[in-house]
Fold:
Amino acid sequence: MGIDSSIFGPASPGAEAILKLFGTLTLFSAVIFAIVLGGTIYSVVRFRAKPGQGEPRQVFGHTRLEILWTVAPAALILVIGVLSFNTLRVVDPARNGQPPELILTGHQWWWEVEYPQAGFVTANEIHIPVGQPVWIQIESADVVHDFWVPKLGRKMDAIPGRSNYLRLEADTPGVYLGACAEFCGVQHAWMRLRVIAQTPAEYAAWQQAQAAIPPPPTETIAVQGAKRFQELTCVNCHTIGGSPAQANAGPDLTHIASRQTLGAGVLENNTANLTGWLTNPQAVKPGNQMPHFTLSSADLSALVAYLETLR
Ligand code: CUA
Structure:
């Protein structure tokens, strides 16, 4: 949705190191390509058969040439190896037992985001303090997914039954678009996420707001929505902090109105889109795990009014 996510605009030391390595290797490849192509064209022109010419001199074995084309590629591979190890030191440093700031779990097709120390769960949006590396632990609830935010660095697989760790950081405040980068089923393309890098003060305020229980609704329609949320099937899959809804099959909705998108990036989060999603989630994102309930229009507007109070 209009957010730049190009690898050519790195916004972290890791992404910069990867881009630099990519540039160097592309340059190496270009030089080798030019030498090979130039040599081929030269040979084709210079040594082409002329009328009346017999078979040219046949050469078998050329020690100097053979040494050259063994040593030169080996040296080149060694240089590339050293450059790669230096890049890896930046993008994949040792964790040394540091606890993760957040635990990211891939689901078909959304991301669960838990901040264990602050004690809350959200979805599809990761907030980090700008300029401060944070460790994230990456898990999967079902199949193999892959976390990738191109402007912030390397990818990391989410593998069922295994914890992977990645150091995430951003140089400048902003919103960074990420996506699942491993085919994981029908809605793989709509398994997006956002990393929102904030000043430490904004980040602390965000954490505090997310950890708080939202105040109960006061408007009549929203009060009705809160009641219907518990009576209808919503409660079987979702959690809303401070309410009896405590299920974990779908995203935690405690502060859903504070999030930028719905359905892991498929829709911008606003009243019309939330209404559309609740009307028929299968029409918006076919195959997703939320069933199509036929809600009465009274229930629909009550639920939307309630969910929009959850800031
Ligand atoms: Cu998850 Cu692709």
Notes: The mean pLDDT is 94. DSSP finds seven helices and twelve strands in the chain. The two ends are 22 Å apart (CA to CA).
